Amino acid sequence: MSFSRVVKESPALSSFSPNGKHLAVPCAAKVTIYNSITFQEIATISNVDVVDAIEWSPDSKLLLCLLLKPKIVQVWHPEDTTWKCRISEGSLGLISACWSPDSQHILTTADFQIRTTVWSLVEKSVLYLKQAKLPLSLRSFSQSGEHLAVVERRDSKDFVSIINCKTWTLEQNFPVASEDIADLLWAPNAETFCIWESPRTGFQLYVYSTAGAKLASFGLNEEIIGIKSLSWSHCGQVVLLESFDDKIMLLETVAWGKLLDYELPEVLTDNSMAIPTSSLQIIYKEVKTKQTIKRGPRPIESYYEVVPIRPVSPGYLIRVGDGSDALSQQTAVKLSASQNYLARISATFPNIVFILDIRKLILTAVLVHLTPVTCIAWDHQSDKLAICTYAKHLCLWTPSNAITLEVPCKAELYSTVAALIVGCHGVKGGTSIASHGRHNWQCVCAHVVLLARPSLTNNGILVIPPEQEKQGSASPRSARAT
């Protein structure tokens, strides 16, 4: 892995283009476009005011910049700086903007959710969507890009409008069975979508077609606070649910029954965890490196160490979070690109990343950190997981090992984002990772071709050979079973 130079950015706004070739880094009113592999500067865009948000068009050709203070949207073509576009809602103000799937339309939302406007960049026409319900997430495009679903609130009841994205005309408007919709998500391979209730109304989801027919429902009468997040598998045959009380469920979408009901283990034993044929130990604990005063490069501040003790309690390995504010604590549940693994951050154990093997429906790895985990991101083409904590290094996990990598950034890392790189500049497949420092907001880009697989020491700790520790490269420490 090699790192770029550190550049300043606005708070964690950097974004990879969908094709993975470019990285946009905003800083105040300017946005700099870099090649995501070489980190060479391609273009610099100057806006009229501070940039509050950016978004690449789905075809990776245009870049949208949202400027909340002057209440305008500026659109740029990074490879043709003479082309530009400006959008304003006038006196109605502006709170958000996003692309349509065809990269030819932009949707803006006025202050107080008065209306959503559809702007055509090709025909230069304008359409209006009214009575949309807050929050803004209750507006979603289908995976095919043919339909837009908008949740509306009228007379204390929820309705869903289905809009044709080719003609931008209303196809259907129908009431739904929910009392208070929390969110909406389309299925990946069909013109159906899920809606689910807010936490105050219970644990309940409904499945609807674009014609307004209710196809299925799933609910629990148990004392579960509610659905916190929902995601579909790529094939659309499995739905992943996360509840507000740190439970995970897998549902099959034929009869909508439970495949897995997983709670955080109170005790980790060999019976509750996967033991591959290679006898790979699966609990990795981050430990501090002993610091010595000497000249030369500063050693990395921590590394992973294998924990052989069984049984062991997660609470013994690290501190336990305060369960009283579980609704507000940061959590995450993410599926890998292959859909074979699931990584999660819990409110109960904020310093631990739990990784489940979906094929075997068992826990396969536990990564314990010194500080709370702030962000996790899977590689878009393989089972590599990037982990950020409040520390000056980046953690990476694969099914075979786990490593820590020192990042040339003065501030602790707050978040990370990974993008797939396909066939750029002679590199056939790889991953670029942008990491964000939380103080003074710095961004550093790392290019990963293959995780290092150095030799083992007797205690199971991997050490990189000196010839691999070149200038500009990371100095990883890794743990793997002997």
TrEMBL record:
Signal peptide as annotated in the record: none
Gene3D superfamilies xref list: YVTN repeat-like/Quinoprotein amine dehydrogenase
Domain of life according to the entry: Eukaryota
Any single GO CC term annotated in Swiss-Prot or TrEMBL for this entry: microtubule organizing center
UniProt name for this protein: Uncharacterized protein
Organism: Rhipicephalus microplus (Cattle tick)
